[in-house]
Amino acid sequence: MAGGGRRHRHSWPAADPPPPGGWRGVTTLKVEQGSAYAGILGVGAYRPARVVPNSEIVDAIDSSDEWVQQRSGIKTRRFADESETVVAMSVSASRDALEAAGIDPRQVDCVIVATVSHLLQTPSAATMVAHELGTDGAAAFDVSAACAGFCHGVAMANDLVRGGSARYVVVIGVERLSDITSRTDRGTAFIFADGAGAVVVGPSETPAIGPVVWGSDGEQYDLIRQKEDWRDAIAADAPEMPHLVMQGNEVFRWASFSMGKVAHQALDRAGVTIDELDCFIPHQANNRITDALARSMKLPAHVKIARDVIDSGNTSAASVPLALERMIRDGDAKSGDVALLIAFGAGLSYAAQVVTLP
Ligand SMILES: CC(C)(COP(=O)(O)OP(=O)(O)OC[C@H]1O[C@@H](n2cnc3c(N)ncnc32)[C@H](O)[C@@H]1OP(=O)(O)O)[C@@H](O)C(=O)NCCC(=O)NCCS
C-alpha cells in the first residue's frame, strides 16, 4: 500500500465474503439492510396566515407591482407572525404529512430539517420538532444547504431507509426568510418569504425515489449569502441583523444554464425519459428561471410545471415541498405520477432526483 500503511484484509470492495464465523482473528461486524426501495409516503405544508401583496413591498425599494411580476412572476408571498416559528411551522407541516402517510409519530426514526433561518446556532430545530411531534426520541438534525436543502434531505432519507438506519424519516423544508431579508434591499426584498413543507419517506414496494444528482460550486460562494457573520456584525455594532444579499444576475445565469444539465442527469440516473415525466417541480426561485430551465431541458408540453412562486414567493428550503403539496392539492399531480424535483441556491449547492408521487 502506498505510504507503507498496513493493508486491511478486506477493505472495500471486498473480493470475498467472510467465511461462516468470520475470518480467523478478525471480528466481523453485523450489519443491517433496510427496505430494497424507499418512497415519499405523504406530503404536508404550512403556509403562514398573512398574505403580503407586492404593494406592501415595492415602495421601500422604489419598485412597482408590475416590475416585480414581470421580473419574478411573484404577486404575493406569506410572512410568518411571532407565533409561526420555524419549529411551529415544521410541526404543523409534518403532522399533515404523517397523516397523509398513515404513519404514527412514534414510528418515526429520524427527523431532518432543512433550513437557513433557524436563528439559534444550537441546538438544531429538528430535535424540538421531533419532540413536539411526539416521536419516541427520533434521531434529529438540521441540514444547511439553502434552497437545495430539502432535496438533500430526501436523498439522505432514501439512503437511510434503504441502508437500514431508519424505517420512517420526516424531511422538512422550512424558512422564515422575512427575519433575514432587508425590507430596503432592491435585489431580495420582493423575492424571499416564509413557510414549511414536509414529506414522510419510508419503505416502498417499488423504486419511488431515484438516485440523487447533487453537488456544489464553492467558487461562487459569495453570490447568495448572509451579508456578514454574526461576530463581525456584533463587533461593528450593526444596527440590524445581518441579512441575505444576492448577485441576482449571476445567480440567474448559473441556475438557467447549469441546472438543465443536472435535470437531465437525474432523469438518466433514474432511467426515465423526459417524455415519461408527468410533473416538473423546480425550486420556486423565480418564474423566469423556471421558464429558462424548461426551455433548456426541452420539457414536453404535457409536463405540468409547479408555479407556486406566484403566490408563495421564494421560500428557499421550503419551496419544493410547498410546490409539491400545491400541485397535489390542486389536482395537477396525482398518485403514481413521475416528478422531477430540482433545487439550487446559496453555496452554490444543488440537488435533483426523480420521484414517484404517493
Ligand atoms: C433579482 C432580479 C429579478 C433582478 O433583475 P435584473 O434584470 O437582473 O436586474 P438588474 O440588477 O440587472 O437591474 C436591471 C434594472 O432594474 C433595476 N432594478 C433592480 N432592482 C429593481 C427593483 N427591485 N425594482 C425596480 N427596478 C429594479 C435596476 O436599477 C436596473 O435599472 P437600469 O437598467 O435603469 O440600470 C434577477 O436578477 C433575478 O431574478 N435573479 C435571480 C434571483 C433569484 O431568483 N434568486 C433565487 C435563487 S435561490
Give your account of this protein's structure.
With 358 residues, this protein is of the alpha/beta class. It is built from nine helices and 14 strands. It folds into two domains: 168 residues, Thiolase/Chalcone synthase (Peroxisomal Thiolase, Chain A, domain 1, 3-Layer(aba) Sandwich); 144 residues, Peroxisomal Thiolase, Chain A, domain 1, CATH 3.40.47.10. Strand 11, helix 7 and strand 12 form a beta-alpha-beta unit. The longest helix has 23 residues. It is globular, with a radius of gyration of 21 Å. The N terminus is likely disordered. The site of coenzyme A has 20 residues, from helix 1 and helix 6.
Question: What is shown here, in short?
Answer:
The protein is an alpha/beta fold and 358 residues long. It has helices at 65-72, 86-101, 125-133, 149-163, 230-235, 248-270, 287-297, 309-312, 319-329, and strands spanning 37-46, 50-53, 76-79, 110-114, 139-143, 169-176, 194-204, 213-216, 224-226, 244-246, 279-282, 304-305, 338-345, 349-356.
Share of residues in helices? 25-40%
Query: Poorly predicted ranges (pLDDT <50, ≥5 residues)?
Result: 1-12
Task: Please count the beta strands (DSSP E, at least 2 residues each).
Answer: 14
CATH class of the largest domain: Alpha Beta
Radius of gyration of CA atoms, rounded to a whole number: 21 Å
What is the CATH architecture assignment of the largest domain? 3-Layer(aba) Sandwich
Record the strand order, biggest sheet: 1-7-6-4-5
Order of helices and strands: EEHEHEHEHEEEEHEHEHEHHEE
**Count of individual domains:** 2
For the termini, the CA-CA separation is 49 Å
Structural class: alpha/beta
Q: Mean of the pLDDT scores? A: 94
Number of helices: 9
Write down the overall geometry.
globular
What about the largest sheet? 5 strands, mixed
What would the CATH topology of the largest domain be? Peroxisomal Thiolase, Chain A, domain 1
As a percent range, the share of strand residues is 15-25%
* Small ligands present: coenzyme A
Say which CATH homologous superfamily of the largest domain is assigned.
Thiolase/Chalcone synthase
